[in-house]
Amino acid sequence: MPARDLENGTSSRPLGVALVGFGTVGQAVARILCNGSHGRLLLTHVCNRRVERKRAGWVPAGVTWTDDIEAVLDSPADVVVELIGGHDPAASWIRRALEAGKSVVTANKQVIAEQGAELEALARRRGRRLRFEAAVAGGIPIIHGLQEGLAGDRLFRVLGILNGTCNYILTRMEADGVSFDAALREAQELGYAEADPAADVDGFDAQAKLAILSAVGLRRPIGASSIPLRTITTIDAVDFAYAKQLACTIRQVSRAEHDGDGRVLAAVQPMLVPRTSALAQVSGSRNVVVVEGAAGGETAFFGHGAGGDPTAVAVVSDLESIARGSGDPAARLAAGPAASAVQDFVSPHYARFIINDRPGIVAALAGVFSRHGVNIDAVLQQPGWPKTNLPFVMTLNACSAAAVHAALAEASAFDFHVRPPLWMPVLTPRQQT
Amino acid sequence: MPARDLENGTSSRPLGVALVGFGTVGQAVARILCNGSHGRLLLTHVCNRRVERKRAGWVPAGVTWTDDIEAVLDSPADVVVELIGGHDPAASWIRRALEAGKSVVTANKQVIAEQGAELEALARRRGRRLRFEAAVAGGIPIIHGLQEGLAGDRLFRVLGILNGTCNYILTRMEADGVSFDAALREAQELGYAEADPAADVDGFDAQAKLAILSAVGLRRPIGASSIPLRTITTIDAVDFAYAKQLACTIRQVSRAEHDGDGRVLAAVQPMLVPRTSALAQVSGSRNVVVVEGAAGGETAFFGHGAGGDPTAVAVVSDLESIARGSGDPAARLAAGPAASAVQDFVSPHYARFIINDRPGIVAALAGVFSRHGVNIDAVLQQPGWPKTNLPFVMTLNACSAAAVHAALAEASAFDFHVRPPLWMPVLTPRQQT
Questions:
Q1: Taking CA atoms, what residue in B is nearest to A144?
Q2: Which residues of A touch B325 (CB under 8 A)?
Q3: ipTM of predicted complex
Q4: DSSP bridge pairs for A376
């Protein structure tokens, strides 16, 4: 049986769907495909390592269970849904599926961030589709939104909360004043965070997602690994107290924008965001993506960024898109050599110091900032701390992140620090939603 | 020249676009089409009454200016963009364009709410497309979101702020305590509100939009005119003071949901919404649409609900969708006999009275509520008002809107009212976002 011609989508035969990866998301996809509400989609294969332990009674008898990817690639299935994640063997399986004349739906942010444009071109040459709504922000239909719903605009900015684990940790710290470590342990106990949380808290997960949003929304390919990252692990409960004093809270913010000179500014980092901003309203493991366009202004998408069911909605929406014979999206993944992102945003900044107090510290820091052309806006010091472990905050007038970074690198050499200084940009009203 | 085959979308010839209606939105669409960023779209015609006064030097010389719809219908243009609004002659022109083998993009909420399914079926029979992203919530890509991005889910609820004029008026009252009349005048001076504001403030505009969202998102056709409306003109500055005391604000909320028994509950009315809810965050003329699905949970879309440029983005996105040969959307407008919406939501309520005070009033009102099975939660009375013109509020425990309506209809007969009582449902956490 030949894979049907997806160009016209007029076949009345249902689309045969092979699931590769039968974990939380794969099972949620299978449940939706088997609940009778998507008559154009027919589950044909479930492929997983040691698949026997995965067999589920609610899956119809006609479905083939296999642990052999070759059986899927050789099958008449029209679409391969890749849900195993990671670089290998996922990337080669996606490539081989496309070469075998199948369309591919994937939730794999790494593979799309790194090889998406090339794989999309391969799909196009074969007259097939590569779709990846589930790779960014789970159930939020942001890829469809960028590729189709906002295709009429020229977007110059994308900003969001793309990692639900970080957002869970930060909103827990915000709500109850718990420490980072306590919030992380809680997230791990609830299954939101991995035993090794680095991909989330250090920003690698959001980095790949932001690279995809830049390629689709800004039409600029940027090398994911070139996007500067700053960890949230250095955020302390005291930072939330000072943020509150500044009418802000703290979020891990991913942002990318044209700078007007053909460069893409991008970063994934903790930021102070006004409590009235859309980003501050996103609590728990939810995500938000805000885009800004030349004509349409600001548009924001909120929803569940992770979890089996929301992510499965994204996968099934992609399958429906293929089943109805949707053509190439208006906005493809930008191809061409990936530019390096630069972190050169200009904004006010927050700098927090924990010191062993003695006279002259503010003067010493002020001297360093002055040499780097950075103006101090205010010095905040909440009472009640011992002099030997004293937190205080300097807010800095709008300046480049590079200047703050350089100033604090120099200031780190002072011997009065109990902990290394921490700095964060402040999202300004121009930037907030 | 035959209209090209849109089924496969593989033509390299650009899509010829005829604009019918050259007001604010039409001009914004033309500017985007002429700015060089949409090479697949070619403006061929501008049709408007007395078109000569509309001629603009920035429109390329090859474009045909006409005031004759027949010239457009007889032309080789591939797509007619209908931007004249209203029922007639818009509906018949859309129909005739489809019958002439053209696709149609429209911003016309009335025509889509009333005849959308029928016109979509006509388009399908002709192998053409009918798209209407601009008909609901301007630049927010909610129609694409429902038809494609969330096609994998089963949505049971849609809730939103769909009228920017009402939202502007209510957020002005909220921010500065101005009266309804003053806020309305301000909106009129800014061009947000018409000289006759009834379509906005009485809910007719949002009614048509909600009917479209129900047909696309809930897959239930409801007769637009069957959706119960309640005006915002009765909202007083004092209501914002009491709302604030209840940690709420007031918004015109449009909502529709399955009730589980095959009925659609729907209404457009002012509601108390918690200040922490997504709806309360929407200020000025912006819109929001919140949908809730069985698998994906809550997803929200924020953006500019009106204005030439944002609405033009929606139109151009639809044109791009047609140009790329997108097939029928996964979620079409629900067809079949339109059901009548029922307003039978159960929620807590707010009831405000302005009275000429005398003993026994609370007892009298309590007696009426009791006879209708409605429990009073609290009585609020802010100080500083004269006894002859005294506002006070009763909050009511969760009960049906019908019970509150009936109780207040009865209570209106008392002679102590200085103004008719006002009631509003309160959006509860289960319902808020």
A1: B149
A2: 327
A3: 0.90
A4: A396
